[in-house]
Amino acid sequence: MHCHDDPMCRASIRGGTVTLNRWSPVLYRAGPAPLAMARLQASLADLHRLDEDELLVVPVPGSPWGLAVDATLAAWATRVGYRRLWLPGHVATLDELPELSTVAVDCPTCGARWEDEAVGFWEMVREDGWFPGFCRACGGSLPEWTEESAVDEGQKVVQFERYVG
Fold it and tell me: Has residue 165 been placed in a domain?
């Protein structure tokens, strides 16, 4: 990777939840901080995929950072298939890939619940380096998926399928 390469995405880590959005050059990176940065309630970082199993984490200047953020990112990175995580101040060699399990996410916009455990789903996640990031019902951004053992009674669950169109 070269220092001029754009990140693959911007990560927001808040309350143990990771949300990723495709990176855009209009996102704040450095320089005079906009007022919104003073009220920031999440840790922000740009993620650079170095190869298929290594990820470089570059915190956004002025973003709060700590060991809990490192641990949250390491748990997520292990789940999606990374083996090494370059964090501020140190490099983490991650555990072996976990066994395939059921993961789920609730859309914070429309409330739809997405759940999947299929081998094809996990192949897609590990190839992409992250979970599907948008709701197939409303198009809103989704946080990264987490392991789920049970679904709330009465809540509709939809298996996520890659959109091919």
Answer: no
In a domain, 98, yes or no: no
Burial of 15 (C-beta count, 10 Å sphere; 0-12/13-18/19+): exposed
How far apart CA 91 and CA 94 sit, in angstroms, is: 9
Query: What pTM value is reported for the model?
Result: 0.81
Co-location of 13 and 88 in the same domain: yes
Same domain assignment for residues 55 and 75: yes
Q: C-alpha distances in angstroms, 33 versus 13, 27, 61, 73, 138?
A: 19, 11, 8, 24, 32
Model confidence band, residue 53 (pLDDT cutoffs 50, 70, 90): very high
